[in-house]
Design goal:
alpha+beta; six-stranded mixed β-sheet; three-stranded antiparallel β-sheet; 19 strands; binds zinc ion
Length: 360
């Protein structure tokens, strides 16, 4: 059971920030720090070594079976339950995660003792999930392995005349039938000029000959997300887009080659960004290179020019450079990469070499 160790890491952080207690309410954090898979509850971890899980009557039985904590306590009103626990366990300076809504914090502030300090710990808490253990990595590998099978199954639908939305639906259906518990997000199927929209969710447009199609999709397995993007051709696209594909792929390969423990994630972003800029497309790569992924599709650490994180073994991040040319189209190529002891391992398995689906 990894939860004792994870709660211990919370306590180390509490000591560093001179806090008495931390409260977690986000589903992903509850799952990570105490094993609870329901949708509503609060985990209170104190610096003095206590862990208490609070939930409502719908989840008491489930929590009793799943949760790693000293005690499971039922509440009727969540904020009342949290304040009562903090009074009993002794919390004066309380840290909370970045996802906690302002209204909830305000409610706790009002109900709690006026002398208590409520301290948001965004970066520090978010970083706690950045390094994955082998069970987490296995779940993501399992999710990513479904991508290749599902895409191959529906490939004959990625043809001129098909509607973007139908491609997205078929892909989702295939992933779920193969064992995905959920899709990771609303899939992007952006064809032709729509490829210039980095987040063009699948629409009513029909695919056509001579276009590129960008498909950004992912499966979730055992709570863990996978995320992958392929851009494929239907016949021969405009010359410039063909060159753009090679540029994006080379930037993607350069970034992955730069990943090893100790390298700043900002440097990895720069490896791809400098290459794209040198090719003349710097202005058309507007987003960060990638993001951490795990219980959330987007989680710490981010891989961008502003990232302060350093690559460490066990981190899983995406590498997804893209070039988007308004009116013409775009290319994005995305893989998930695990930082290993001496380098990097790509967890997604679809080949990213340029492919014309109408050829041969
Ligand atoms: Zn993606
Ligand atoms: Zn992504």
């Amino acid at each position: 059971m990894p939860f004792i160790d994870r709660q211990h890491r919370v306590r180390v952080l509490l000591a560093e920030h001179q806090l008495d207690a931390a409260i977690f309410t986000a589903r992903e954090n509850l799952r990570y720090f105490c094993g609870f898979t329901g949708s509503d509850g609060v985990l209170v971890v104190t610096g003095s070594g206590r862990a208490r899980f609070l939930t409502d009557s719908r989840y008491t039985t489930q929590a009793g079976a799943e949760v790693c904590a000293d005690q499971v306590v039922e509440y009727r009103v969540q904020s009342e339950g949290v304040v009562a626990a903090l009074l009993e366990l002794g919390g004066q300076r309380i840290g909370f995660e970045s996802g906690l809504a302002y209204g909830k914090v305000d409610d706790l502030r009002t109900r709690g003792d006026a002398s208590w300090a409520w301290i948001p710990l965004k970066d520090a808490f978010d970083g706690l999930r950045a390094v994955k253990d082998s069970v987490e990595i296995e779940a993501m590998v399992a999710a990513a392995s479904l991508h290749a099978v599902a895409l191959a199954e529906i490939e004959t639908l990625i043809r001129p005349g098909s509607i973007e939305r139908d491609v997205a639906l078929a892909l989702e259906f295939a992933l779920k039938r193969l064992g995905a518990e959920e899709k990771s997000f609303d899939f992007i199927v952006a064809s032709g000029p729509r490829g210039a929209l980095p987040h063009g969710v699948a629409g009513d447009r029909r695919l056509a000959v001579g276009e590129l199609v960008t498909i950004d999709f992912g499966a979730r397995v055992a709570g863990y997300h996978a995320d992958e993007t392929v851009t494929v051709a239907l016949g021969t696209p405009p010359d410039e887009l063909r060159r753009v594909y090679d540029t994006v792929l080379a930037a993607h390969d350069l970034a992955i080659a730069a990943i090893r423990p100790g390298v700043a994630l900002a440097e990895i972003d720069r490896a791809a960004r400098d290459f794209i800029a040198a090719a003349g497309y710097g202005a058309y790569f507007g987003h960060g290179l990638g993001h951490g992924i795990g219980l959330d599709v987007h989680e710490a650490p981010t891989v961008s020019a502003r990232s302060k994180a350093i690559a460490a073994p066990g981190m899983v991040v995406t590498v997804e450079p893209g070039i988007y040319l308004p009116g013409l189209g775009g290319v994005r190529i995305e893989d998930m990469v695990l930082v290993t002891e001496d380098g990097a391992r790509v967890l997604t398995c679809i080949d990213k070499q340029y492919r014309d689906l109408l050829a041969g």
